[in-house]
Amino acid sequence: MADPAPPAESPAPGERRFLGFQGLSARLLLLTVLIVVVANLLILPPNLSAFEQQWLLDRLRAGELASLVEETAPGGVVTDRVRAKLLANAGVVSVAVQVGNERRLILQAPRLARTPYLVDLRQPDPLFWLLPLRTLVEGGDRMMRVMSRPRFREGQFVEVVAPDGPLKRELLAQLGRLMGIAAFTSVMAGAVVYLSLNQFLVRPMRRITLSMERFRADPDDPRARVAPSRRRDEIGRAESELARMQADLRAALASRARLAALGEAVAKINHDLRNMLASAQIASERLASSGDPKVAQSLPRLERALGRAILLASNVLAFGRSEEPAPEVRSLLARAAVEAAAEDAGLTAGGVRLETDIDPAAVIEADPEQLHRMLVNLLKNAREAIEGQGEEGRAGVGRVTVSLASDGEASRLVLADDGPGLPERARAHLFQPFSGSARLGGAGLGLPIARELAQAHGGDVTLVSTGPDGSVFELRLPIGA
What we know:
The protein is of the alpha+beta class. It has three domains: 20-182, no CATH class; 234-317; 327-478, Histidine kinase-like ATPase, C-terminal domain (Heat Shock Protein 90, 2-Layer Sandwich). It contains ten helices and twelve strands. Helix 1 (24-72) packs antiparallel against helix 2, helix 5 packs antiparallel against helix 6 (293-320) and helix 7 crosses helix 8 (368-387). It is rod-shaped, with a radius of gyration of 48 Å. The two termini are 31 Å apart.
């Protein structure tokens, strides 16, 4: 099997890199030049078409004026020399006028070897912009008949015959001028757009990117802090949000460092505390053998207090672990799992009792150990909520009802108690460690640990309802995870 490719090395913070055409500035410049060039290319055909139309009209008006000379000549006759000079000056080889039903050939050259093609300027042609292309490709040695309405004399139309070679040369010259203008405007527009975008977009983005690179390398580097500008556009918003994000991340990193130090200290304290509690348990067992009735009366309370202290220390250590092991999901008998967890959670027939509405054959898919921990935390919280009521309440007598439902995608274990419900202050931070305990002296770790384990399965723990009649929690675990 081939070795995986090594990850690309990221540049050092603050390092200036030459990106070539991969940089945003160069791409913007190239894109601007291309857009201007394409725009100029699109206006070339209409421009050349207008140029050719004007050139043809000039030839036609010149031929029409030349025809007036023959009509004003003595006897209406001009010599061949004068006729040739008039046609040469007009740039045509013949001039004809249509008056009524009569077509008069006023100035005529020798007979043409090839039939000229027709260009009619009397009516606008939507495809006239294609005519310069035909002239450039096929023109040079052909003749053309140009027709238009007369301007200086009476008649239906004036017609001239002219070679298209001079027109082709003029079109090529005009095309060269347009291409030069297009190149100049493309470069100028590209430079203006490049400088503008580089000033207002690229440089601020480069500054933001440099700040992000420095922050990633060293969040405590003062140079990594981006100073928001007074801009109110997207760049200004990006700078402001980046500054806020950096401040939040610095605070989170500082808090994480403090929590890491605190966790290490708590782990050491817990280790010593568990040893002390173990010694206290041994001492309590020795006290149990004494015959003092007062000691015997106080001993169960002492043992419960020691047991809770040991459990609290264990929970703190369990929550402080960096990562829970991945769940090994199996099919388990749901009722048996609930009853085993209820026993460890302290639910008894003489105190807070368990009532199950679960078929003994019903199964649930979960990691056995993690499901046990989830259920113990939920059932223990319910028991402590019921037992924590005052003397005017049930004083430790109550029940926790557990039922199982399935919607085809997930199994839902619903745990309902008849305790006093959760106070408002506990609901606001119910699943936050060390914050959501509703019991005096509680660590607030049971529900966060249960939710963390449930989410590792792809499910969740949620509070369905709470009030004076009790609280209802739902443990949702997916089927076939």
